[in-house]
Amino acid sequence: xxxxxxxxxxxxxxxxxxDTQKDDVISFFAxxxxxxxTLDAIDTEHVERMxxxxxxxxxxxxxxxxxxxxxxxxxxxxxxxxxGYWCVPRVLE
Amino acid sequence: MKYETVIxxxxxxxxxxxxxxxxxxxxxxxxxxxxxxxCPACCGMPGMLPVVNRRVVDFGxxxxxxxxxxxxxxxxFDKKSYYYPDLPGAYQTTQWFAPVAVNxxxxxxxxxxxxxxxxxxxxxxxxxxxxxxxxxxxxxHVDFNRTSVPLIEIVSQPDLSSAEEVEAYLxxxxxxxxxxxxxxxxxxxGTMRCDVNLSVRPAGSxxxxxxxxxxxxxxxxxxxxxxxxxxxxxxxxxxxxxxxxVQETRRWDDAKGKSYxxxxxxxxxxxxxxxxxxxxxxxxxxxxxxxxxxxVPEFPEVKREKYIxxxxxxxxxxRISESIMLCECFExxxxxxxxxxxxVNWITSDVMRILNAKKMTYEMxxxxxxxxxxxxxxxGDGKISRANSxxxxxxxxxxxxxxxxxxxxxxxxxxxxxxxxxxLDVVKKVIEADPKSVNDFKNGKEKAxxxxxxxxxxxxxxxxxxxxxxxxxxxxxxx
Lengths: 93, 479
Description:
The structure holds two protein chains of two kinds. Chain A contains three helices and three strands; from the N terminus they run ααβαββ. By secondary structure, chain A is mainly alpha-helical. Chain A has a domain at 3-40. The radius of gyration of chain A is 22 Å and the shape is flat. Chain B is an alpha+beta fold. In chain B, the strands form four sheets. Chain B has a nine-stranded mixed beta sheet. The longest helix of chain B is centred in the middle third of the chain and has 21 residues, at 220-240. Chain B starts with a strand and ends with a helix. Strand 1 (60-61) of chain A pairs parallel with strand 2 (52-53) of chain B.
Protein backbone atom coordinates (compact mmCIF):
# COMPACT_ATOMS: atom_id res chain seq x y z
CA UNK A 1 0.00 0.00 0.00
CA UNK A 2 1.58 3.24 -1.09
CA UNK A 3 0.57 6.72 0.00
CA UNK A 4 -0.90 7.64 -3.41
CA UNK A 5 -3.02 4.46 -3.55
CA UNK A 6 -4.27 5.15 -0.03
CA UNK A 7 -5.11 8.74 -0.93
CA UNK A 8 -7.21 7.51 -3.85
CA UNK A 9 -9.01 4.88 -1.78
CA UNK A 10 -9.80 7.49 0.88
CA UNK A 11 -11.24 9.71 -1.82
CA UNK A 12 -13.41 6.96 -3.27
CA UNK A 13 -14.63 5.86 0.17
CA UNK A 14 -15.07 9.42 1.47
CA UNK A 15 -12.69 8.73 4.36
CA UNK A 16 -10.74 11.45 6.10
CA UNK A 17 -7.55 10.12 7.72
CA UNK A 18 -4.87 12.02 9.61
CA ASP A 19 -1.23 11.58 8.60
CA THR A 20 -0.70 9.35 11.66
CA GLN A 21 -3.67 7.17 10.70
CA LYS A 22 -2.33 6.94 7.16
CA ASP A 23 1.06 5.85 8.48
CA ASP A 24 -0.66 3.18 10.59
CA VAL A 25 -2.60 1.86 7.58
CA ILE A 26 0.52 1.77 5.41
CA SER A 27 2.44 0.01 8.15
CA PHE A 28 -0.41 -2.50 8.64
CA PHE A 29 -0.40 -3.42 4.96
CA ALA A 30 3.39 -3.65 4.90
CA UNK A 31 3.15 -6.27 7.66
CA UNK A 32 0.49 -8.15 5.68
CA UNK A 33 2.78 -8.07 2.64
CA UNK A 34 5.47 -9.64 4.76
CA UNK A 35 3.02 -12.34 5.92
CA UNK A 36 2.12 -13.02 2.31
CA UNK A 37 5.78 -13.37 1.40
CA THR A 38 6.13 -15.95 4.17
CA LEU A 39 3.17 -17.91 2.82
CA ASP A 40 4.47 -17.62 -0.72
CA ALA A 41 7.70 -19.27 0.36
CA ILE A 42 5.89 -22.48 1.33
CA ASP A 43 6.12 -25.24 -1.27
CA THR A 44 2.50 -26.04 -2.28
CA GLU A 45 3.30 -27.68 -5.57
CA HIS A 46 1.81 -31.04 -4.54
CA VAL A 47 -1.12 -29.64 -2.55
CA GLU A 48 -4.50 -29.93 -4.25
CA ARG A 49 -6.01 -26.54 -5.06
CA MET A 50 -9.15 -25.56 -3.11
CA UNK A 51 -11.88 -23.35 -4.48
CA UNK A 52 -13.17 -22.44 -1.04
CA UNK A 53 -12.06 -22.93 2.56
CA UNK A 54 -15.32 -24.74 3.37
CA UNK A 55 -16.02 -28.15 1.79
CA UNK A 56 -19.44 -26.93 0.62
CA UNK A 57 -20.22 -26.40 -3.04
CA UNK A 58 -23.17 -25.42 -5.20
CA UNK A 59 -25.55 -24.00 -2.63
CA UNK A 60 -28.42 -22.98 -4.88
CA UNK A 61 -32.18 -22.54 -4.58
CA UNK A 62 -34.99 -22.90 -7.09
CA UNK A 63 -36.29 -19.72 -8.71
CA UNK A 64 -39.46 -18.58 -6.95
CA UNK A 65 -40.53 -15.25 -5.50
CA UNK A 66 -41.99 -14.58 -2.07
CA UNK A 67 -42.17 -11.55 0.21
CA UNK A 68 -42.01 -12.59 3.86
CA UNK A 69 -40.80 -9.24 5.20
CA UNK A 70 -42.76 -6.01 5.48
CA UNK A 71 -41.14 -2.72 4.58
CA UNK A 72 -42.14 -1.30 7.97
CA UNK A 73 -40.29 -4.05 9.82
CA UNK A 74 -37.21 -3.64 7.65
CA UNK A 75 -37.15 0.11 8.12
CA UNK A 76 -37.85 0.00 11.86
CA UNK A 77 -34.20 0.64 12.70
CA UNK A 78 -33.52 3.18 9.96
CA UNK A 79 -32.30 6.60 11.12
CA UNK A 80 -34.46 8.31 8.49
CA UNK A 81 -37.14 7.22 6.02
CA UNK A 82 -39.55 9.11 3.80
CA UNK A 83 -42.50 7.76 1.81
CA GLY A 84 -41.07 4.25 1.90
CA TYR A 85 -37.53 5.29 0.95
CA TRP A 86 -34.44 5.00 3.10
CA CYS A 87 -32.83 8.45 3.34
CA VAL A 88 -29.08 9.02 3.25
CA PRO A 89 -26.92 12.16 3.04
CA ARG A 90 -27.15 13.57 -0.45
CA VAL A 91 -25.14 11.61 -3.04
CA LEU A 92 -24.51 13.02 -6.46
CA GLU A 93 -21.81 12.08 -8.94
CA MET B 1 -3.74 11.02 -41.41
CA LYS B 2 -6.34 8.24 -41.44
CA TYR B 3 -7.68 6.99 -38.13
CA GLU B 4 -9.55 3.93 -37.00
CA THR B 5 -11.98 3.65 -34.11
CA VAL B 6 -11.61 0.79 -31.65
CA ILE B 7 -14.72 -0.10 -29.68
CA UNK B 8 -15.42 -2.68 -27.00
CA UNK B 9 -18.81 -3.08 -25.37
CA UNK B 10 -19.95 -4.14 -21.93
CA UNK B 11 -23.60 -5.08 -22.20
CA UNK B 12 -25.71 -5.58 -19.08
CA UNK B 13 -28.75 -7.75 -19.56
CA UNK B 14 -31.43 -8.31 -16.92
CA UNK B 15 -32.27 -12.01 -16.72
CA UNK B 16 -35.90 -13.11 -16.96
CA UNK B 17 -36.13 -14.85 -13.59
CA UNK B 18 -38.96 -14.68 -11.10
CA UNK B 19 -36.77 -13.83 -8.13
CA UNK B 20 -33.54 -11.97 -7.42
CA UNK B 21 -30.10 -13.51 -7.74
CA UNK B 22 -29.31 -14.04 -4.05
CA UNK B 23 -32.70 -13.88 -2.31
CA UNK B 24 -36.34 -14.75 -2.99
CA UNK B 25 -37.65 -11.21 -3.44
CA UNK B 26 -39.48 -10.69 -6.71
CA UNK B 27 -37.27 -9.48 -9.55
CA UNK B 28 -40.22 -7.62 -11.07
CA UNK B 29 -40.89 -4.34 -9.34
CA UNK B 30 -41.56 -1.94 -12.20
CA UNK B 31 -44.06 0.62 -10.93
CA UNK B 32 -44.12 -0.90 -7.43
CA UNK B 33 -44.02 1.08 -4.19
CA UNK B 34 -40.41 1.85 -3.17
CA UNK B 35 -38.79 -0.89 -1.09
CA UNK B 36 -41.79 -3.20 -1.44
CA UNK B 37 -39.68 -6.06 -2.92
CA UNK B 38 -36.87 -6.20 -0.41
CA CYS B 39 -35.61 -8.39 2.43
CA PRO B 40 -32.70 -8.32 4.90
CA ALA B 41 -30.42 -9.98 2.31
CA CYS B 42 -30.86 -7.45 -0.51
CA CYS B 43 -30.94 -4.59 2.02
CA GLY B 44 -27.44 -5.58 3.09
CA MET B 45 -28.32 -6.23 6.72
CA PRO B 46 -25.54 -7.82 8.75
CA GLY B 47 -25.51 -11.59 9.08
CA MET B 48 -27.70 -12.35 6.08
CA LEU B 49 -26.36 -15.02 3.73
CA PRO B 50 -26.96 -14.92 0.00
CA VAL B 51 -28.17 -18.11 -1.75
CA VAL B 52 -27.70 -18.35 -5.51
CA ASN B 53 -30.79 -18.63 -7.70
CA ARG B 54 -30.20 -21.78 -9.78
CA ARG B 55 -32.03 -20.35 -12.79
CA VAL B 56 -29.56 -17.46 -12.95
CA VAL B 57 -26.78 -20.02 -13.47
CA ASP B 58 -28.97 -21.84 -16.03
CA PHE B 59 -29.46 -18.60 -17.95
CA GLY B 60 -25.81 -17.58 -17.62
CA UNK B 61 -24.74 -20.91 -19.10
CA UNK B 62 -27.37 -20.79 -21.83
CA UNK B 63 -26.37 -17.27 -22.82
CA UNK B 64 -22.76 -18.47 -22.94
CA UNK B 65 -23.68 -21.36 -25.21
CA UNK B 66 -25.65 -19.05 -27.53
CA UNK B 67 -22.54 -16.89 -27.80
CA UNK B 68 -20.20 -19.81 -28.51
CA UNK B 69 -18.44 -19.50 -25.15
CA UNK B 70 -16.60 -22.06 -23.07
CA UNK B 71 -18.49 -22.69 -19.83
CA UNK B 72 -16.48 -22.63 -16.62
CA UNK B 73 -17.55 -25.80 -14.83
CA UNK B 74 -16.48 -24.26 -11.52
CA UNK B 75 -17.76 -20.72 -11.36
CA UNK B 76 -17.30 -18.42 -8.38
CA PHE B 77 -18.56 -15.09 -7.08
CA ASP B 78 -16.49 -12.15 -5.91
CA LYS B 79 -16.96 -8.89 -4.09
CA LYS B 80 -16.34 -5.66 -5.96
CA SER B 81 -16.01 -2.48 -3.92
CA TYR B 82 -18.77 -0.01 -4.62
CA TYR B 83 -19.10 3.52 -3.40
CA TYR B 84 -22.79 4.42 -3.56
CA PRO B 85 -25.69 3.60 -1.22
CA ASP B 86 -27.83 1.80 -3.82
CA LEU B 87 -25.79 -1.31 -2.95
CA PRO B 88 -25.97 -1.17 0.82
CA GLY B 89 -23.18 -3.67 1.53
CA ALA B 90 -20.71 -1.24 -0.12
CA TYR B 91 -19.82 -3.97 -2.57
CA GLN B 92 -21.40 -5.64 -5.57
CA THR B 93 -21.44 -9.41 -5.72
CA THR B 94 -20.19 -10.23 -9.19
CA GLN B 95 -17.76 -12.60 -10.90
CA TRP B 96 -14.15 -11.70 -11.54
CA PHE B 97 -11.90 -14.75 -11.11
CA ALA B 98 -14.09 -17.48 -12.64
CA PRO B 99 -17.00 -16.06 -14.66
CA VAL B 100 -19.63 -18.48 -15.92
CA ALA B 101 -18.63 -18.20 -19.60
CA VAL B 102 -15.47 -17.14 -21.45
CA ASN B 103 -13.90 -16.96 -24.92
CA UNK B 104 -17.00 -16.68 -27.09
CA UNK B 105 -17.88 -15.20 -30.46
CA UNK B 106 -20.74 -13.30 -32.05
CA UNK B 107 -20.91 -13.18 -35.84
CA UNK B 108 -22.24 -10.02 -37.44
CA UNK B 109 -22.80 -8.75 -40.95
CA UNK B 110 -22.67 -5.10 -42.08
CA UNK B 111 -22.16 -3.23 -45.33
CA UNK B 112 -18.42 -3.82 -44.75
CA UNK B 113 -18.97 -7.60 -44.76
CA UNK B 114 -18.99 -10.40 -42.21
CA UNK B 115 -17.08 -10.19 -38.96
CA UNK B 116 -16.65 -12.17 -35.75
CA UNK B 117 -16.66 -10.20 -32.52
CA UNK B 118 -14.82 -12.02 -29.75
CA UNK B 119 -16.52 -12.30 -26.38
CA UNK B 120 -14.07 -12.04 -23.50
CA UNK B 121 -16.51 -13.24 -20.85
CA UNK B 122 -20.04 -13.35 -19.50
CA UNK B 123 -20.38 -12.90 -15.78
CA UNK B 124 -23.38 -13.03 -13.47
CA UNK B 125 -23.94 -10.24 -10.98
CA UNK B 126 -26.49 -8.28 -9.02
CA UNK B 127 -27.98 -4.99 -10.16
CA UNK B 128 -27.82 -1.88 -7.98
CA UNK B 129 -30.87 -0.13 -6.53
CA UNK B 130 -32.18 3.28 -7.42
CA UNK B 131 -31.15 6.65 -6.01
CA UNK B 132 -33.60 9.54 -6.14
CA UNK B 133 -32.04 12.97 -5.66
CA UNK B 134 -34.90 15.35 -6.27
CA UNK B 135 -37.45 14.60 -3.53
CA UNK B 136 -35.84 16.80 -0.90
CA UNK B 137 -32.75 18.95 -0.59
CA UNK B 138 -29.74 17.57 1.22
CA UNK B 139 -31.07 14.01 1.11
CA UNK B 140 -30.87 11.15 -1.32
CA HIS B 141 -33.75 8.68 -1.24
CA VAL B 142 -32.87 5.01 -1.74
CA ASP B 143 -35.08 2.30 -3.23
CA PHE B 144 -33.69 -1.26 -3.02
CA ASN B 145 -36.37 -2.92 -5.20
CA ARG B 146 -33.90 -3.34 -8.06
CA THR B 147 -30.98 -4.25 -5.81
CA SER B 148 -29.90 -7.85 -6.49
CA VAL B 149 -32.03 -8.26 -9.60
CA PRO B 150 -29.95 -10.71 -11.68
CA LEU B 151 -27.82 -9.47 -14.55
CA ILE B 152 -25.32 -10.92 -16.92
CA GLU B 153 -22.60 -8.65 -18.23
CA ILE B 154 -21.32 -9.57 -21.68
CA VAL B 155 -17.84 -8.18 -22.24
CA SER B 156 -16.61 -8.03 -25.82
CA GLN B 157 -13.04 -7.68 -26.97
CA PRO B 158 -12.32 -4.33 -28.71
CA ASP B 159 -13.16 -5.79 -32.12
CA LEU B 160 -15.77 -3.25 -33.26
CA SER B 161 -14.82 -0.28 -35.38
CA SER B 162 -17.96 1.65 -36.32
CA ALA B 163 -21.44 2.63 -35.18
CA GLU B 164 -22.87 0.33 -37.83
CA GLU B 165 -20.96 -2.65 -36.46
CA VAL B 166 -22.04 -1.81 -32.91
CA GLU B 167 -25.68 -1.72 -34.03
CA ALA B 168 -25.32 -5.08 -35.82
CA TYR B 169 -23.64 -6.57 -32.74
CA LEU B 170 -26.33 -5.35 -30.33
CA UNK B 171 -29.18 -6.49 -32.57
CA UNK B 172 -27.58 -9.92 -32.96
CA UNK B 173 -26.97 -10.18 -29.23
CA UNK B 174 -30.58 -9.24 -28.52
CA UNK B 175 -31.90 -11.78 -31.03
CA UNK B 176 -29.78 -14.61 -29.63
CA UNK B 177 -30.65 -13.90 -25.99
CA UNK B 178 -34.33 -13.61 -26.82
CA UNK B 179 -34.10 -16.88 -28.75
CA UNK B 180 -32.68 -18.49 -25.64
CA UNK B 181 -35.53 -16.93 -23.60
CA UNK B 182 -33.09 -15.77 -20.95
CA UNK B 183 -33.90 -12.07 -21.17
CA UNK B 184 -36.34 -9.51 -22.50
CA UNK B 185 -33.47 -7.33 -23.80
CA UNK B 186 -35.65 -4.24 -24.17
CA UNK B 187 -33.36 -1.21 -24.07
CA UNK B 188 -36.32 1.14 -23.57
CA UNK B 189 -37.24 -0.79 -20.39
CA GLY B 190 -33.65 -0.77 -19.13
CA THR B 191 -33.41 -4.56 -19.36
CA MET B 192 -30.47 -4.19 -21.75
CA ARG B 193 -27.90 -1.44 -21.13
CA CYS B 194 -24.60 -0.80 -22.75
CA ASP B 195 -21.25 0.71 -21.74
CA VAL B 196 -19.24 1.84 -24.76
CA ASN B 197 -15.43 1.83 -24.51
CA LEU B 198 -13.90 3.77 -27.36
CA SER B 199 -10.47 4.87 -28.50
CA VAL B 200 -9.00 6.12 -31.76
CA ARG B 201 -5.62 5.30 -33.27
CA PRO B 202 -3.82 5.87 -36.57
CA ALA B 203 -5.04 3.35 -39.13
CA GLY B 204 -2.86 0.25 -39.12
CA SER B 205 -1.35 0.93 -35.70
CA UNK B 206 -1.42 -1.88 -33.17
CA UNK B 207 -1.17 0.48 -30.20
CA UNK B 208 -4.48 1.39 -28.58
CA UNK B 209 -5.27 5.07 -28.04
CA UNK B 210 -6.62 6.71 -24.88
CA UNK B 211 -9.89 5.01 -23.98
CA UNK B 212 -13.05 6.69 -22.76
CA UNK B 213 -16.16 4.95 -21.51
CA UNK B 214 -19.77 6.02 -21.85
CA UNK B 215 -21.97 4.20 -19.37
CA UNK B 216 -25.56 3.01 -19.23
CA UNK B 217 -26.55 3.78 -22.80
CA UNK B 218 -30.08 2.53 -23.41
CA UNK B 219 -30.90 3.18 -27.04
CA UNK B 220 -29.16 1.90 -30.14
CA UNK B 221 -29.71 5.18 -31.96
CA UNK B 222 -28.22 7.15 -29.05
CA UNK B 223 -25.25 4.77 -28.96
CA UNK B 224 -24.63 5.35 -32.67
CA UNK B 225 -24.76 9.13 -32.22
CA UNK B 226 -22.47 8.93 -29.18
CA UNK B 227 -19.91 6.84 -31.08
CA UNK B 228 -19.87 9.28 -33.96
CA UNK B 229 -19.45 12.25 -31.60
CA UNK B 230 -16.72 10.59 -29.53
CA UNK B 231 -14.80 9.44 -32.60
CA UNK B 232 -14.82 12.99 -33.98
CA UNK B 233 -13.78 14.41 -30.59
CA UNK B 234 -10.85 12.01 -30.29
CA UNK B 235 -9.67 12.67 -33.86
CA UNK B 236 -9.96 16.43 -33.31
CA UNK B 237 -7.86 16.13 -30.15
CA UNK B 238 -5.23 14.04 -31.93
CA UNK B 239 -5.14 16.15 -35.10
CA UNK B 240 -5.54 19.66 -33.72
CA UNK B 241 -4.62 19.34 -30.06
CA UNK B 242 -8.00 20.78 -29.03
CA UNK B 243 -7.82 18.92 -25.73
CA UNK B 244 -5.75 16.32 -23.93
CA UNK B 245 -7.50 12.98 -23.97
CA VAL B 246 -7.60 11.22 -20.62
CA GLN B 247 -8.94 7.83 -19.60
CA GLU B 248 -12.27 8.69 -18.05
CA THR B 249 -15.95 7.87 -17.78
CA ARG B 250 -18.17 10.21 -19.79
CA ARG B 251 -21.90 10.87 -19.83
CA TRP B 252 -23.72 11.08 -23.13
CA ASP B 253 -26.36 13.84 -23.35
CA ASP B 254 -28.45 12.72 -26.30
CA ALA B 255 -30.58 15.88 -26.36
CA LYS B 256 -27.49 18.08 -26.73
CA GLY B 257 -25.60 15.54 -28.86
CA LYS B 258 -22.50 15.84 -26.66
CA SER B 259 -20.55 13.80 -24.14
CA TYR B 260 -19.34 15.24 -20.85
CA UNK B 261 -16.61 14.10 -18.47
CA UNK B 262 -18.05 12.42 -15.37
CA UNK B 263 -15.11 11.03 -13.47
CA UNK B 264 -11.72 9.46 -13.89
CA UNK B 265 -12.13 5.86 -14.92
CA UNK B 266 -11.73 3.42 -12.06
CA UNK B 267 -9.23 0.67 -12.69
CA UNK B 268 -9.59 -2.97 -11.63
CA UNK B 269 -7.37 -2.14 -8.63
CA UNK B 270 -9.89 0.43 -7.38
CA UNK B 271 -12.57 -2.22 -7.27
CA UNK B 272 -10.45 -4.45 -5.00
CA UNK B 273 -12.06 -7.68 -6.12
CA UNK B 274 -11.82 -10.58 -3.72
CA UNK B 275 -13.62 -13.94 -3.49
CA UNK B 276 -16.96 -13.64 -1.72
CA UNK B 277 -16.69 -16.09 1.17
CA UNK B 278 -20.47 -16.10 1.65
CA UNK B 279 -21.33 -17.51 -1.78
CA UNK B 280 -20.13 -21.05 -2.27
CA UNK B 281 -18.50 -21.96 -5.58
CA UNK B 282 -20.96 -23.39 -8.08
CA UNK B 283 -19.88 -26.66 -9.69
CA UNK B 284 -21.67 -27.47 -12.93
CA UNK B 285 -21.76 -31.23 -13.27
CA UNK B 286 -22.26 -33.12 -16.54
CA UNK B 287 -26.00 -33.65 -16.03
CA UNK B 288 -26.61 -29.93 -15.42
CA UNK B 289 -24.40 -28.90 -18.34
CA UNK B 290 -26.11 -31.33 -20.73
CA UNK B 291 -29.60 -30.29 -19.62
CA UNK B 292 -28.82 -26.70 -20.52
CA UNK B 293 -27.05 -27.69 -23.73
CA UNK B 294 -30.16 -29.64 -24.79
CA UNK B 295 -32.34 -26.58 -24.18
CA VAL B 296 -30.34 -24.35 -26.54
CA PRO B 297 -32.54 -23.55 -29.55
CA GLU B 298 -31.60 -23.65 -33.22
CA PHE B 299 -30.05 -20.39 -34.43
CA PRO B 300 -32.22 -18.02 -36.51
CA GLU B 301 -30.40 -18.79 -39.76
CA VAL B 302 -30.92 -22.55 -39.28
CA LYS B 303 -34.65 -21.99 -38.80
CA ARG B 304 -34.79 -19.68 -41.81
CA GLU B 305 -33.28 -22.33 -44.09
CA LYS B 306 -35.64 -24.96 -42.68
CA TYR B 307 -38.65 -22.76 -43.40
CA ILE B 308 -37.53 -22.06 -46.95
CA UNK B 309 -37.28 -25.82 -47.46
CA UNK B 310 -40.90 -26.06 -46.27
CA UNK B 311 -41.94 -23.78 -49.12
CA UNK B 312 -41.96 -20.37 -47.43
CA UNK B 313 -40.65 -17.40 -49.37
CA UNK B 314 -37.29 -16.00 -48.26
CA UNK B 315 -39.12 -12.89 -47.06
CA UNK B 316 -41.61 -14.84 -44.93
CA UNK B 317 -38.90 -17.17 -43.59
CA UNK B 318 -36.87 -14.12 -42.55
CA ARG B 319 -39.85 -12.52 -40.84
CA ILE B 320 -40.82 -15.62 -38.89
CA SER B 321 -37.26 -16.48 -37.84
CA GLU B 322 -36.83 -12.98 -36.45
CA SER B 323 -38.40 -14.10 -33.18
CA ILE B 324 -38.39 -17.40 -31.33
CA MET B 325 -42.03 -16.83 -30.35
CA LEU B 326 -43.06 -16.52 -33.99
CA CYS B 327 -40.99 -19.62 -34.79
CA GLU B 328 -42.75 -21.64 -32.10
CA CYS B 329 -46.13 -20.32 -33.20
CA PHE B 330 -45.39 -21.25 -36.81
CA GLU B 331 -43.96 -24.69 -36.06
CA UNK B 332 -46.63 -25.79 -33.57
CA UNK B 333 -49.58 -24.44 -35.56
CA UNK B 334 -48.20 -26.03 -38.74
CA UNK B 335 -47.88 -29.37 -37.00
CA UNK B 336 -51.47 -29.09 -35.78
CA UNK B 337 -53.01 -28.19 -39.14
CA UNK B 338 -50.49 -29.60 -41.61
CA UNK B 339 -50.49 -26.47 -43.75
CA UNK B 340 -47.37 -24.32 -43.16
CA UNK B 341 -48.12 -21.90 -45.99
CA UNK B 342 -51.56 -21.11 -44.60
CA UNK B 343 -50.09 -20.72 -41.10
CA VAL B 344 -47.51 -18.20 -42.29
CA ASN B 345 -50.30 -16.24 -44.01
CA TRP B 346 -52.23 -16.10 -40.75
CA ILE B 347 -49.17 -15.10 -38.73
CA THR B 348 -48.02 -12.37 -41.09
CA SER B 349 -51.53 -10.95 -41.44
CA ASP B 350 -53.97 -11.58 -38.59
CA VAL B 351 -51.56 -12.43 -35.77
CA MET B 352 -49.25 -9.49 -36.50
CA ARG B 353 -52.23 -7.16 -36.95
CA ILE B 354 -53.55 -8.03 -33.49
CA LEU B 355 -50.06 -7.75 -31.96
CA ASN B 356 -49.74 -4.27 -33.45
CA ALA B 357 -53.20 -3.23 -32.30
CA LYS B 358 -52.43 -4.39 -28.77
CA LYS B 359 -48.97 -2.77 -28.87
CA MET B 360 -47.42 -6.15 -28.09
CA THR B 361 -43.95 -7.27 -29.14
CA TYR B 362 -43.41 -10.67 -30.75
CA GLU B 363 -41.92 -11.83 -27.45
CA MET B 364 -45.25 -11.15 -25.73
CA UNK B 365 -47.11 -13.56 -28.01
CA UNK B 366 -48.89 -16.04 -25.74
CA UNK B 367 -51.28 -17.92 -28.03
CA UNK B 368 -52.01 -21.60 -27.70
CA UNK B 369 -50.27 -22.42 -30.98
CA UNK B 370 -51.97 -25.77 -31.42
CA UNK B 371 -55.35 -24.09 -30.99
CA UNK B 372 -54.31 -21.63 -33.68
CA UNK B 373 -53.57 -24.59 -35.96
CA UNK B 374 -57.02 -25.98 -35.20
CA UNK B 375 -58.65 -22.64 -35.99
CA UNK B 376 -56.82 -22.52 -39.32
CA UNK B 377 -58.02 -26.05 -40.13
CA UNK B 378 -61.63 -25.26 -39.19
CA UNK B 379 -61.54 -22.16 -41.37
CA GLY B 380 -59.92 -23.99 -44.27
CA ASP B 381 -62.51 -26.76 -44.02
CA GLY B 382 -65.30 -24.19 -44.25
CA LYS B 383 -66.59 -24.87 -40.75
CA ILE B 384 -66.00 -21.29 -39.59
CA SER B 385 -66.25 -18.24 -41.81
CA ARG B 386 -63.11 -16.11 -42.28
CA ALA B 387 -64.83 -13.17 -40.60
CA ASN B 388 -65.74 -15.21 -37.55
CA SER B 389 -62.32 -16.86 -37.40
CA UNK B 390 -60.80 -13.39 -36.97
CA UNK B 391 -63.13 -12.77 -34.03
CA UNK B 392 -62.17 -16.10 -32.49
CA UNK B 393 -58.45 -15.38 -32.94
CA UNK B 394 -58.91 -12.07 -31.19
CA UNK B 395 -60.60 -13.84 -28.28
CA UNK B 396 -57.78 -16.40 -28.18
CA UNK B 397 -55.30 -13.56 -27.63
CA UNK B 398 -57.20 -12.58 -24.49
CA UNK B 399 -57.79 -16.10 -23.22
CA UNK B 400 -55.27 -18.76 -24.18
CA UNK B 401 -57.52 -21.56 -22.87
CA UNK B 402 -60.11 -21.04 -25.64
CA UNK B 403 -60.75 -24.03 -27.88
CA UNK B 404 -61.76 -22.53 -31.24
CA UNK B 405 -64.34 -25.19 -32.09
CA UNK B 406 -66.03 -25.03 -28.68
CA UNK B 407 -65.95 -21.23 -28.79
CA UNK B 408 -67.50 -21.21 -32.28
CA UNK B 409 -70.23 -23.58 -31.21
CA UNK B 410 -71.00 -21.62 -28.04
CA UNK B 411 -71.21 -18.38 -30.00
CA UNK B 412 -73.27 -19.71 -32.89
CA UNK B 413 -70.36 -19.37 -35.33
CA UNK B 414 -70.08 -22.96 -36.46
CA UNK B 415 -71.19 -23.54 -40.01
CA UNK B 416 -73.18 -26.76 -40.02
CA UNK B 417 -74.70 -28.61 -42.93
CA UNK B 418 -76.61 -25.69 -44.38
CA UNK B 419 -80.15 -26.10 -45.53
CA UNK B 420 -80.46 -24.54 -48.99
CA UNK B 421 -84.04 -23.56 -48.20
CA UNK B 422 -82.95 -21.60 -45.15
CA UNK B 423 -80.32 -19.71 -47.18
CA LEU B 424 -82.83 -19.20 -49.98
CA ASP B 425 -85.30 -17.59 -47.56
CA VAL B 426 -82.64 -15.14 -46.39
CA VAL B 427 -81.53 -14.34 -49.96
CA LYS B 428 -85.11 -13.68 -51.08
CA LYS B 429 -85.67 -11.40 -48.13
CA VAL B 430 -82.50 -9.39 -48.85
CA ILE B 431 -83.26 -9.09 -52.59
CA GLU B 432 -86.78 -7.92 -51.87
CA ALA B 433 -85.53 -5.26 -49.48
CA ASP B 434 -82.84 -3.94 -51.87
CA PRO B 435 -84.09 -3.90 -55.47
CA LYS B 436 -81.68 -1.07 -56.32
CA SER B 437 -78.59 -3.23 -55.73
CA VAL B 438 -80.16 -6.01 -57.77
CA ASN B 439 -80.70 -3.63 -60.70
CA ASP B 440 -77.22 -2.14 -60.30
CA PHE B 441 -75.68 -5.61 -60.54
CA LYS B 442 -77.77 -6.47 -63.55
CA ASN B 443 -76.53 -3.23 -65.15
CA GLY B 444 -72.92 -4.30 -64.69
CA LYS B 445 -71.98 -3.00 -61.21
CA GLU B 446 -70.09 -5.93 -59.68
CA LYS B 447 -69.84 -4.16 -56.32
CA ALA B 448 -73.61 -4.32 -55.94
CA UNK B 449 -73.38 -8.11 -55.73
CA UNK B 450 -70.91 -7.82 -52.87
CA UNK B 451 -73.30 -5.50 -51.04
CA UNK B 452 -76.10 -8.05 -51.34
CA UNK B 453 -73.73 -10.86 -50.39
CA UNK B 454 -72.67 -8.94 -47.27
CA UNK B 455 -76.26 -8.34 -46.22
CA UNK B 456 -77.09 -12.04 -46.61
CA UNK B 457 -74.01 -13.04 -44.63
CA UNK B 458 -74.98 -10.60 -41.90
CA UNK B 459 -78.46 -12.10 -41.70
CA UNK B 460 -76.90 -15.56 -41.49
CA UNK B 461 -74.46 -14.30 -38.80
CA UNK B 462 -71.55 -15.49 -40.92
CA UNK B 463 -72.51 -19.13 -40.46
CA UNK B 464 -72.69 -20.05 -44.08
CA UNK B 465 -70.41 -21.49 -46.69
CA UNK B 466 -69.59 -18.41 -48.83
CA UNK B 467 -69.54 -20.45 -52.05
CA UNK B 468 -72.95 -21.98 -51.33
CA UNK B 469 -74.41 -18.53 -50.60
CA UNK B 470 -72.93 -17.00 -53.75
CA UNK B 471 -74.43 -19.71 -55.96
CA UNK B 472 -77.91 -19.29 -54.45
CA UNK B 473 -77.67 -15.49 -54.62
CA UNK B 474 -76.74 -15.51 -58.30
CA UNK B 475 -79.49 -18.01 -59.10
CA UNK B 476 -82.07 -15.80 -57.43
CA UNK B 477 -80.89 -12.57 -59.13
CA UNK B 478 -80.67 -14.16 -62.56
CA UNK B 479 -84.04 -15.81 -62.13
